[in-house]
Amino acid sequence: MDHIVLEVGLAIVLIAIAGLLSSKLRFSVIPFYILMGMAVGPHAPVLWHFDFRFIESAPLIEFMGRLGVLFLLFYLGLEFSVGRLIKSGKSIAIGGTIYIVINFTLGVLFGVLTGFPLKEILIIAGITTISSSAIVAKVLVDLKRTANPETEMILGIIMFEDVFLAVYISILSGLVLSGSTSIGGVVLSALIALGFMLFLIIVGRKAVPLLNRLLNIRSNELFALVIFGALFVVAGFSETIHVAEAIGALLVGLVLAETEHMKRIEHLILPFRDFFGAIFFFSFGLTIDPLSLGGAVWLSLGAVALTLFGNYLAGMLAGRTAGLSPKASSNIGLTIVSRGEFSIIMANLGKAGALMTIIQPFAALYVLLLAILGPILTKESKTVFKLLNAVFRFSKEPGKQAEKKQKLSNGG
Q1: SS3 for 372?
Q2: What pTM was computed for the model?
């Protein structure tokens, strides 16, 4: 008997339970979704009609997860827009470059030292380089730090990472998915991908007045069909020329963010982003056999340690070059340490390219650890800075300065 609808309903219930648990504990929901997926799957039991293995529904759940990635990156494109990226400023460009260079270099060195082949090294470097904008944004809002002086740099680095991710996935997908082995083949794939991206951005910006008129649709139903049609067609076409479909979605978002209908599109997409995004993390967990994680434990722990070091160093350097205080610079490095959706996208790219199977459990453990550590380190950033400042002396006599400020605030 066909139980696909029942299985999908069961999956949604499990995802909702994971979300409720994270809400009760006031913690990032992403690791809970992944853990819930890992708790069931092919190794799970069957209880009457409730099949926790999700064998029949696995392809549908995976497809819904793919939609989650599209909606997630499309929404990010709407939030940032090409115009905002261009106006990010010199300090953000410098800070973003520092962050990418340090973390990408450490990722490559980690892959080399652990003995991986070239393609796997490039995937691992991508996994360890890109922060989770979803977790970072949620932490900033939850801790009420949106008005902090370092927040502009944090958001700027996230935007810079998005641009790097778009270019990097385009190049890497040409190498991993196209099967090109010659330098010429790889360069050609990369040029096609980058040309496609530039074409969409340039033509999209020029076509903003036309898009404003075309999207002036009163019917919400027709408006949704037009937006979804554009999103899926561009994303699907992107994949045919070895550009990750997620980047196609990002580009559509960047272009539509320039139109006067951006708020309406954002309101339309938000529930789809949340619903399918949750299924995406759950479906990723379904692909991970907990019994296979043992071989990735030390690899993941090593990568986490290296990421913590690289992020803190990059945050301190980026903040100081922008004229921020040592404490604010420290907050940058601690806030952007979380890894999540983009690391999973990179791992899935490795899976699509039939690379070493250790990549999936490595990415799962790595993301879980940093999705948990990131919010904790951000929340306790003052304590972390005090401990590190006692050793490295980033700031002179912080204790006395704090005492003076406290006396002044108390009127004495």
Answers
A1: helix
A2: 0.74
Going through 11-72 in order, the beta strands assigned E by DSSP cover 46-47, 50-51
Cα 296 to Cα 235: distance, rounded to the nearest angstrom: 32
Angle at 151 between CA 150 and CA 156, to 5 degrees: 105
pLDDT in tens, 70-90: 888 788 778 766 666 566 567
For 1, 147, 290, the CA distances from 130, given in Å and listed in that order, are 43, 24, 25
If you average pLDDT over residues 326-334, what whole number do you get?
90
Q: Measured between alpha carbons, how far is 64 from 70 in angstroms, rounded to an integer?
A: 10
Would you tell me the crossing angle of helices 245-256 and 183-206 to the nearest 10 degrees? 20
How many C-beta neighbours within 10 Å does residue 77 have?
Answer: 24
Per cent of the chain over pLDDT 70 is 88
The H-or-E segment that residue 99 falls in is: helix 90-113
Compute CA distances 266 → 63, 252, 256, 296, whole Å. 22, 13, 10, 39
Q: Are 132 and 71 in contact (CB under 8 A)?
A: no
